[in-house]
Amino acid sequence: MPSTTDGWSRSLDGSHHVFTAHEFEIPDNDDRQYRLIRLPNQLEALLIHDANTDKASAALDVHVGNLSDPDHLEGLAHFCEHLLFMGTSKYPKENDYFQYCSEHTGHSNAYTDSEHTNFYFEVGADYLQGALDRFAQFFISPLFSESCTERELKAVDSEHKKNLQTDGWRLHELEKSLTNPNHPYSKFGTGNLHTLKYNPEKLGVNIRDELLRFHDTYYSSNIMKLCVLGKESLDELAEWVLDKFQHVPNKNIQPPIFEGHPLTEKELMKQVYVMPVKDYRCLDLTFPFPYQQPYFRIQPGHYLSHLIGHEGAGSILCYLKQKGWANYLSSGPVEGGINFDFFKVSIDLTEDGLAHYEDVVATVFQYIHMLKRTGVQENIFREVQSLARLSFKFRENFSPSQYTSLLVEQMHQNYPREWVISASSLIREYDAGLIQDHLAWLDENAFRLTLTTRNPPKGIELTKREQWYETEYEEMPMQQSIIDAIRMVSPIEELHYPGINEFIPTIFETNRRQIDTKQKKPELIKDTPTIRLWHKKDDTFWVPRTNMWILLRNPSADVSPANSVKTKLYTELLVDSLNVYSYDAEVAGLLYYVDEHSGGILLDIGGYNQKLPLLLRKVLMQMRNFTVEPSRFKLIKEQLIRSYKNFALEPPYQLALFYLSHITHERLWTAEEKLLELESITSQDIQDYYPTLLSDLFIEVLVHGNAFANEAIGMTDMIESILKPRALSPSQLSQPRTLNLPEGSRYVFTSKLMDESNVNSAIEYFIQICEATDIPSRARLSLVAQIMQEPCFDQLRTKEQLGYLVFSGIRKQIANMGLRFIIQSEKDTIYLENRIEEFLDSLKTIIENLSEKEYQAQVNSLIADKLEKDKNLGQEGIRYWSEIQYGTYDFGQVDEDVVELRTISKASLLEFFNTYVHYSSPIVRKISTHIQSQKQPVNIKPKINIESLYVCLNSQGVTKYNLSDLETTVQSCESGAPTEDVLRKLLKDETKANENEIEMLISKLVSILKIDSTGSSGTLVSVTPPTGNGQINPSVATTNRDHTQLPAGNTEIDDFTLRSLKARMN
Questions:
Q1: Each residue of 78-103: pLDDT tens digit?
Q2: At what angle do helices 432-439 and 357-374 cross, to 10 degrees?
Q3: What is the CATH number of the domain that holds 59?
Q4: Whole domain around residue 322: which residue ranges?
Q5: Set 81, 572, 837, 967: catalytic member
Q6: Is 911 a catalytic residue?
Q7: What is the distance between the alpha carbons of residues 299 and 778, in angstroms, rounded to a whole number?
Q8: Mean pLDDT rounded to a whole number for the chain
Q9: Distances (CA, A) of 863 to 681, 789, 890, 897, 900
Q10: What is the domain count for the chain?
Q11: Are 828 and 761 in contact (CB under 8 A)?
């Protein structure tokens, strides 16, 4: 294999080049094989052979993003990403790719950012070749069909609208809009109907032509990177990649490069006041910063972030907390695009901190001054370098699609090819001068200040609105008082460098050895009246980490809203008190988490096992000997009040999920119930409460990872010796209860959104089916969920465009489980409920029409999915803990389900569906939660749909239509065009009828469809969805359904009904 000077060699058959200069830099436990090849069209591909994988994946990253959008078509790169999924010349069926992935235990997605468009998928390991062939066609011959183009415009618009009331999106877009307007960073990257439809139409621009032009310009193989992971040999993977991707056109273009920084002198030294949706207070300092990728060997931004964002003794945050001015702080480089980055310091302020925000700014700069004055500290750099090396050395696997998607973006960067896997995970060189140069960019004369708060300082009026999110703000020159505060502040003695980190591990022994028969479940090694210890020594991943889950059961912890709030306050105060101490542990890869849990308190702790007992002892001692500081209590209580109040401003779908859980769980209290109690709780109440909470306990523990049984017992002995709990009585040991719906019940809970500006509504539609321990029903439920997943998305999301967020699957509720649908949409929730039930009608037909081969393929796909191996230590541990925390201990349920699945016939599944799933069954148990937008009228009469239009046309002898023709017609109606005009265009384009005949047909159609003067239809006629060839199936009977009314038999949940349901908890 002759080599070249750049490290590449021609393959033996001469078909491509292979990188052979060096071995790849990989984590210690990574036993996969890698090969980097370059195709004749200059597409570079990283191949990964994983002999043990049960999932395969590929990702392709195009080095172009929304910075390259034309000025008059903002969002075009994102829109192009959407359209590539909608069919290709070789695979024209628009859902072919999604269907293939779904039917083979897979999924797919993509994202567009400033300079990248990243596509990825994951499928069962046996089905990589078929997925890869479909995937490659995205970049060779996408269709960009007219009907899909029109429909996906709505998907992009819906995606944008789901973010409209999210503060993170709002602030990001505002900050972009206030940068240099001549720099592409200032553009609106998501896009919506205005930028991609209405504005182009006004300019006479054809959006499909522009899509084709954009794809033809930028989708060039020489600026693409591909990564493929499979069980096949590297030679076979290379053969597949060459065969499928060598025909991607190479236009020999350069990745777009954007000169200059978006923050010029004109945009700096400005302060911006922003009105948020949720009630929070945040101070952001933003600096222009050099593009970091060229400095990956030293990573100066990492060093600065470590110090400025530190939370231990001597840090900015520690000082601000002592002053009562801040709750949280984060800092670090923020990626901008090719050739520019930012450095950002973000501080969550207290109410007093807001009043002293100028002093907070001065404190940050005082710390920066200290860093400049004292110079770069090599010992701290070496510590950061060492921790990065440890993190990479013992990095565990994550999902194949996450991995391939990450790698293809890294491949675009200017790393030596042998470092494309390690990339910026490692810090390789020390250069004090370069770090000092970067520190100079944190300049008190060149930054922007953004203050986000519902209570701007006195005299500040927010008179401006950002264009796309309508965020209220005000921008003005930096006030002289802030400049003076920065320059005049004296050195603050409390600010200093962090000390030596005692949590950095030095022992990494895992006793790795060959295991012939691996342990499939944790073992119960201690069982007393006060503690139950489960243990599993890792025999798969061999990393020097241990994870512990410790559940302190005491039913009084959440027996009432008041106790639930007290438990929450206690855990929040505990974490707050430990922050200065525990931050070093976090930096060293040792994390802990304490929070209220159903029926108690959960302590989750994990990381490098050598120092885990040290942190565990400190946390337990603090739990037992905790003293509430009134000043910290006041701040934590205020945070919690805001958190409960802000809950009503969560996305509608999140509220729909919560309220269904609230109704069906015994002790899941609402934010409103908690707020009523929180106002009157004092610091003394918490001081008196927590000792009683910890006095009587049953402790459930799982120790999992690099710890032997004696070590696990030693740590649980520590727990008992420190907490000294008394045993609970048997009656107190019962698990939290969940609602068992009565047979034949159909309940609806409705709530209005508090946020008047949110245009979206949401629904969760839940069909309760069986006990979680009912193996035959559980297996059939999972099979129905598997079969329906892709058709549901295709029908409700892709074709009907109900909303960007459409999901179907299984909901497990401790003791029982069932099927659920989740939709967030601009449409009314009653309409959504009807559409879900119409889909259930079609699902029955889909199952009936499955051939035996198709049915068995679905069964095999589900079995493969259930048998999928855990990817890392944490994933395996969480699987075990989910069985332990709710007392099910069914560690073998996967094997039980697989055995049952192999016995299920299609007839048996249909019987199950008709009896327990379909709404027409007399024993079906259904509950739905409707979260309604205040902007959405309750009963909007829907316009005609595809199915009703087909039936009506067919009844008049007009039959020469494909689905796409009808879709275009319906979409035009939904866009506001007069229905009669749209029908007239359809008939003129597709029939040979004269004008009189056309008008007569329109008259009949209007009458049949019951279209009123506004173009709405009072009754929708529905039929089964199209058959596989894209045609409507005319052989099925039609059914009448009024989409403006709840389906018959539903009962609205009022307070009395809710109390009655809660009484049924089992």
A1: 999 999 999 999 999 988 999 999 99
A2: 150
A3: 3.30.830.10
A4: 270-394+415-488
A5: 81
A6: no
A7: 51
A8: 92
A9: 51, 16, 18, 8, 10
A10: 5
A11: yes
